[in-house]
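lol forgot to send this yesterday, sorry. struct tokens for the thing we talked abt
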């Protein structure tokens, strides 16, 4: 099974993430560094929330069926 990835830069304020966390918004829509649009569940970002929200570059890993496999902060 091949693992694929996308790189996204995220800047989500604490207020925006609070709406995601409370369930008002379930998914994050982002554009990868190579221009592809990606939608993923907000809950995968929970480990990366700080007092300034979520900031940084992330690698999202998925399989050939586009199923989420993992996420890592890369800067």
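and heres what i got for the seq, position by position
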């Amino acid at each position: 099974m091949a693992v694929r990835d996308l790189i996204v830069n995220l800047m989500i304020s604490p207020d925006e993430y609070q709406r995601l966390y409370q369930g008002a918004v379930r998914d994050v829509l982002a554009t990868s560094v190579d221009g592809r649009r990606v939608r993923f569940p907000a809950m995968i970002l929970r480990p990366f929330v700080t007092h300034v929200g979520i900031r940084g570059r992330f690698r999202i890993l998925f399989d050939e069926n586009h199923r989420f496999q993992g996420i890592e902060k890369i800067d």
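Residues 14-21 form the longest helix (8 residues). anyway ping me if u want another try
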